[in-house]
Amino acid sequence: VRVAVTEGLGTFWLAPRLVEFQRSFPNILVDLHCAMRSADVLRHEADIAVQLSMPTTLDVKVVKLGKLHVMFYASQKYIDIYGKPSSYAELKKHRIVMQFADQTAAKEIFDSWFPDTPQQDLLVMRNNVSSANYWAIAKGAGIGLLPTYASAIGAKVVPIDVGLQRPFDIWLSYHPASKGIPRIRHMIDWMVEAFNPVQFPWFREDFIHPD
């Protein structure tokens, strides 16, 4: 089963959990492709796609899995050296890292939250993948945006409460003809449960603080 997913969700959320799927279906090979570019399931680039922007193709089947909430985080090492901002005004005096890639809406977020500040006056690092963004934050390069489930998976980062959060809808899409294929149906059903907001509250519609 070919699964295309955004790099962060694939690396940090789905890949560690796929062992559960494989225990139930040991004979299914999972081809997990993590990238920020959306896959076209109608053209069979993937059997299933999970992305943060709603598919615009009318002929695909679409399921809303939940919401991804991002907020600022920092490492304890960074806090020990530079302190922990407790307000928006204090945040603007700190070192910020951001991921700029398809589906992250980084420019929109930056322009909305820091409308009068050029990027070069605030950012100390830009990167294009979630794994690099996480490690930059975790190792103390600066304060940056991470999904709130980062706390739930034991990431070595501390949430920064300055009143800034951003939600993203999580969408699953698949080819209409794929629903009748058992291996793909099994994966779709498992994927829905993997983002179940009742079991995993950080995927709820409402923002749930990671604490």
Verbal overview:
With 211 residues, the protein is an alpha/beta fold. It has eight helices and nine strands. It has helices spanning 7-24, 76-82, 88-91, 106-113, 119-122, 130-138, 149-152, 182-194, and strands at residues 2-5, 31-34, 48-51, 61-74, 96-99, 123-127, 143-147, 158-159, 165-174. Strands 1, 2, 3, 4, 5, 6, 7, 8 and 9 form a nine-stranded mixed beta sheet that branches. The longest helix has 18 residues, at 7-24. It starts with a strand and ends in a 17-residue tail after the last helix. The mean pLDDT is 91.
How large a portion of the residues is in β-strands, by DSSP E?
Answer: 15-25%
Q: Please summarize the sheet with the most strands.
A: 9 strands, mixed
Q: Note poorly predicted spans.
A: none
Class derived from helix and strand content: alpha/beta
Secondary-structure element pattern, one letter each: EHEEEHHEHHEHEHEEH
List the helices and strands and how they pair.
Layout: E1 2-5, H1 7-24, E2 31-34, E3 48-51, E4 61-74, H2 76-82, H3 88-91, E5 96-99, H4 106-113, H5 119-122, E6 123-127, H6 130-138, E7 143-147, H7 149-152, E8 158-159, E9 165-174, H8 182-194
Structure keywords:
211 residues; alpha/beta; 9-stranded mixed sheet; 9 strands
Summarize the structure.
The protein is an alpha/beta fold and 211 residues long. The chain has helices at residues 7-24, 76-82, 88-91, 106-113, 119-122, 130-138, 149-152, 182-194, and strands at residues 2-5, 31-34, 48-51, 61-74, 96-99, 123-127, 143-147, 158-159, 165-174. The protein contains 8 helices and 9 strands.
